[in-house]
Amino acid sequence: MEATTINQTIKATYPEFPPKLRVLSTVRQFADKHPAFSQGSLRNLIFLAEDRNTSKGVINGNGLEIALVRIGRKLLIDEARFFEWIDAQQGGK
């Protein structure tokens, strides 16, 4: 098999090769890297991420859970998904 044929086969089988590395950060690391988001504002967004039950019924979450990765008690923010979520908040733009 020629090298070009092998490369074409790999690209057809694995469109994202080499795979993209996910950038995961703690709340503190994310806030330090992106000063537009304070730790307090990030923690509030995380608190409001999932649906929650109240005495008046279910309150829908903000949808941020797609950008959150939980490993035991550790919570990490996936940078790429967080900014995709930000873009989705813009409405029809």
Low-confidence stretches: none
Average per-residue pLDDT, rounded, comes to 89
Radius of gyration: 19 Å
Strand order of the largest sheet: 1-5-4
Distance between the termini: 47 Å
Which structural class should the secondary elements be placed in? Answer: alpha+beta
Order of H and E elements: HEHHEEEEH
Whole-number tally of structural domains: 1
User: Biggest β-sheet: count, sense, barrel?
Assistant: 3 strands, antiparallel
Structure write-up:
- This protein is an alpha+beta fold.
- The protein has one domain.
- The protein is built from four helices and five strands, in the order H-E-H-H-E-E-E-E-H.
Summarize the structure.
The chain is 40% helix and 18% strand. With 93 residues, it is α+β, with helices and mostly antiparallel strands.
Keyword list:
93 residues; alpha+beta; three-stranded antiparallel beta sheet; two-stranded antiparallel ribbon; 40% helix; elongated
